[in-house]
Amino acid sequence: MAADMPTTFFGWVVFIINQYGSALLQGAGVTLMLAIVGTLIGCIIGLLVGIVQTVPVTERTNTGLKILNKIVQFIFAAYVEIFRGTPMIVQAMVVYYGSMAVFDIDMSAMLAGFLVVSVNTGAYMAETVRGGIISIDKGQTEAAMAIGMNHFQTMYTVVLPQALKNIMPQIGNNLIINIKDTSVLNVISVTELYFASKSAAGVYYRYFEVFFVTCVIYFIMTFAASRLLRYFEKRMAGSADYQLVGDPMADPTGIFPNNTKMGGK
């Protein structure tokens, strides 16, 4: 048996791929599922928290609503600071083991993983959304309010469509971070890529070769995610050129002929 073992680095790499390639790919699939679902749910959490954090309070606001707003703002601020100020690996241990110890909930490792990635991403996205909302010119919000829109209507129809384009790079950054950071979930026995790699490496004690393959898989996932997100960013940005509508009323002056390109070379 020993005579059949590889003797070179790349020989071991090929051997590891042949022996444990399917297990590593399954782990990579779990990693992607945790990262994508966790990022999506985290973005929803971040949007809700970010919108509430920007609710305006004026002198005309009811006293009860002012008190309620302060309580909610305090809770959300505490949520953001706690989950941004503690490591995800510690959060995973607290959620997984604490759910049973404190609430007597027998939570599966995968459910705990989804929960941790989601709320952690939500804490970072809340600040990103808040910054994106603030970056939009206040005149647009004031104009929306002037025609009778409330805060949430203004956010949904006017501010968020513009803010979303501004925060897309950060959403992509969070996805890439989550692809890598899900590796910490191995401490609660989530069978993601790092967990599968550690198990494979322990069989033959070939840690360098196994984690070299793992490194390549992580790079492929993050590189593909970054290219895909860059594509969506360009699609959302739109074309640098635009055309006047072929309707005489679109140009009552008659200066520009139909189908004239503007804004581009």
TrEMBL record:
GO terms for cellular component: ATP-binding cassette (ABC) transporter complex. Gene3D superfamilies: MetI-like. It is a multi-pass membrane protein. This is Amino acid ABC transporter membrane protein (PAAT family). It comes from Pectinatus cerevisiiphilus. InterPro entries: AA_ABC_transptr_permease_3TM, ArtM/GltK/GlnP/TcyL/YhdX-like, MetI-like, MetI-like_sf. SUPFAM superfamilies: MetI-like (SSF161098). Belongs to the binding-protein-dependent transport system permease family. HisMQ subfamily. The chain crosses the membrane at residues 32-52, 94-117, 204-226. Keywords: Amino-acid transport, Cell membrane, Membrane, Transmembrane, Transmembrane helix, Transport. It is found in: Cell membrane. The keyword Aminoacyl-tRNA synthetase does not apply. Pfam families: BPD_transp_1 (PF00528).
